[in-house]
Structure formats: structure tokens, C-alpha cells
Amino acid sequence: MIQHATDASETARGVGPLDVQLAVDVESTSGCPLRGRDTDGVRQSMNRSAAEEPETCQVVVEDGGGTDYERTDIGDTCPCSVMEGHDCVAEIEAVRDGRLLYSVVVPDREELRAVVADLREDGASVSLERIRTDPAAGGPRADGVALTAKQREVLSLAIEAGYYEQPREASLSDLADELDVTPSAVSQRLNAVERKLVCERARDFDLQ
């Protein structure tokens, strides 16, 4: 859960750094070379070496058709440029349905709020897809939601089996057979998980 304030002592106790995934609407960002593409393989960098030349965004995109290299002038509203102005480490993971999926490590929740606020101020549509303590920092891996062992088991199985895919690749009965319980029990456990996740997301965005 994102708190309203985070200080250095909280970070030292394991509240941060935070590993988050942000989804940024590419269609709301002018000039992005990744607009109109869906891809799992993206490598990106920004070139600021020559002061007299415009800053450029360089991307290497890998897909079934091969590998493309593109270079585009960037503006102040480019999401990568906005993130570079903050105390964070950001990488593009993929492009899905017109959204850039960024993996971002921030020192604390306050910096996360600042990143999201600046992206939105520049007109980008932003959603928080994942938040957890950064395991590389030595702290415990956490997603901010307390689930029971049975809830984690059913959620893991549902994701792996494709229950949340569109269209669904598994039914409640399929999950029930794997867990040796009734479909009603599976439904109750998933409903409990979904309620917790929705409430957690609401708190993240100050909706509660």
C-alpha cells in the first residue's frame, strides 16, 4: 500500500526501494517510435551527448519479423524523458495494446507519487500495474496484499492455467479439479483475492 509519506528511515527498514510496473498510454505521447506496435522485445536509450543537437530516443524492437532500429527526436513530454528527471531506474519491458509497460525502481513511495504526477501533468494516461519491495535490495519480496496460502495457491493456478486470459483458457471446474475442491470453493477464494487486490489498488490511488 502506498503511504502518504515515506522518509529515509522507512526505506532503511525495508519499505523501499520499490519495484513497480507502470503502464503509460503511448497514444497520449507525441513522437514516440513505439506507437502502434505490440512487442515483447524493446531496448531503449536516450542520447544527450551533443548539446547543439536535439535529444533523441533510440529503440531496438525485436519481433517475429526481425529486428528494427529507430531513432526519433524527443520532447519534454516523452515518458522516458520525464522519468529521467526523477530519482528512479526505468526500463521499457514491452508494449501492449498501445501502452508502454515500464519496470521502474524508485527509492520510496513519495518518489513514485512524484513520477506518476509528472507523467499525468504532461498529459499521459498512467496506471500502476504492480508494486512490491525490490528483492534485489535485500528486503522481503512483497506485493502489498496479504493473501492466505490457499488464496495464493488458487491465484497462481488461475494465472498459469489462463483463467484470466481473454478468452479464458480454463474454467472454474478446471481449477477445481486441479485443487480437488468444488467450483464454488474456487470461486469464493478468487473473489476474496480480487476484493483484496481491488481495495489495495483503491488505496494506491487515494480512492479510500
What key attributes describe this structure?
4-stranded antiparallel sheet, 208 residues, 3-stranded antiparallel sheet, Arc Repressor Mutant, subunit A, 6 helices, disordered N terminus, alpha+beta, globular, 2 domains
Layout of secondary structure:
Layout: H1 8-12, E1 18-25, E2 41-47, E3 56-63, E4 66-73, H2 79-84, E5 89-96, E6 99-106, H3 109-121, E7 126-133, H4 149-161, H5 172-179, H6 183-204
Antiparallel strand pairs: 1-6, 1-7, 2-3, 3-4, 5-6
Helix pairs in contact: 4-6, 5-6
Structural class: alpha+beta
- Termini separation: 11 Å
Helix content: 25-40%
Q: What's the mean pLDDT score?
A: 75
Task: Give a description of the structure.
With 208 residues, the chain is α+β, with helices and mostly antiparallel strands. It has 2 domains: 8-137, no CATH class; 149-204, Arc Repressor Mutant, subunit A (Orthogonal Bundle). The chain has 6 helices and 7 strands, in the order H-E-E-E-E-H-E-E-H-E-H-H-H. The chain has helices at residues 8-12, 79-84, 109-121, 149-161, 172-179, 183-204; strands spanning 18-25, 41-47, 56-63, 66-73, 89-96, 99-106, 126-133. It has a 4-stranded antiparallel β-sheet with strand order 5-6-1-7. Strands 2-3-4 form a 3-stranded antiparallel β-sheet, with no helix packed on it. Strand 3 and strand 4 (66-73) form a beta hairpin. The longest helix has 22 residues, at 183-204. The model is unreliable at 1-14 and 135-142 (pLDDT under 50).
